[in-house]
Amino acid sequence: MKEDIPIYYFSKIKDRELRELVNIKQNFSLKIFDLWFNQTINLKDHEIKFLTELLDKEFNFIRIYKEEDLKVKFIAPILNKVDFRNIEKEIRDFYEEKITYKTNKFIFTGNTDFLVSKGLEYSEKPYFFIQEFKKAKEISYPESQLLAELITAVELNDFKIIKGAYIVGAIWNFVILKKLAENTYQYFISINFDSSKLTDLTAIYKNLLVVKEEIFKI
Q1: Residues 80 and 208: beta-carbon distance below 8 Å
Q2: Distance of CA 63 to CAs 19, 124, 172, Å?
Q3: Distance separating alpha carbons of residues 43 and 133, to the nearest angstrom
Q4: Using CA atoms, how far apart are residues 185 and 162, in angstroms rounded to an integer?
């Protein structure tokens, strides 16, 4: 009798489970983020005005919002302003898009919080993920969930490297995942960006613009 392959959902996978399924380790060097974070980007006046007014309006609520409130009131306006959609190149952002990666030992699957992908009707080749919009890390596993999604995209796309981010309340962390060999990966986590501070929120916005331009050039 053939045994069923165990299924692991992005929304539930824990750090320990992920490490039992794949060979994955964190590299604590931050130099890999230099090229991403240090690009010269001059924001337009309307962009600075948008970020300032958004933060003024939401500052007292960012840390207390529930998941959907945080997404709709604060995160989505930022992502919409970045505007990852390009009709000509058939690239856009997706919310709650399902993706699946199957091996003979396990299956990763689930609905992603946010991804940017090739495809207009549905995701065909995901390039960038944001996870989790959770209020508190103690009740969720945004890091392992994001890593499982990044592994899925790397394998589906035959990539060697991919970028993402996860959000816990006001704090954003950007992540780079590299595939080193079969079922072997390393990942890098950036410094904290506190979106309740205008300087950090501006940096977050610029980092997303860099990702957008990289994707559009692929």
Answers
A1: no
A2: 30, 34, 12
A3: 25
A4: 11
For the chain, give the secondary structure using H, E and C: CCCCCCEEECCCCCHHHHHHHCEEEECCCCHHHHHHHCCCCCCCHHHHHHHHHHHHHHCCCCCCCCHHHHHHHHHHHHHHHHCCCECCCCEEEEEEEEEEEECCCCEEEEEEEEEEEECCCCCCEEEEEEEEEECCHHHCCHHHHHHHHHHHHHHHHCCCEEEEEEEECCEEEEEEEEEEECCEEEEEECCCEECCCHHHHHHHHHHHHHHHHHHHHC
pTM of the predicted structure, to 2 decimals: 0.94
pLDDT digits (tens, 9 = 90+) for 56-106: 999 999 988 888 899 999 999 999 999 999 999 999 999 999 999 999 999
Instruction: Please state the length of the chain.
Output: 218
Query: Dihedral of CA 98/153/9/109: which sign?
Result: positive
Tens-place pLDDT, residues 184-211? 999 999 999 999 999 999 999 999 999 9
Tokens 């058939």 belong to which residue? 90
Q: 30 and 38 in contact (C-beta within 8 Å)?
A: no
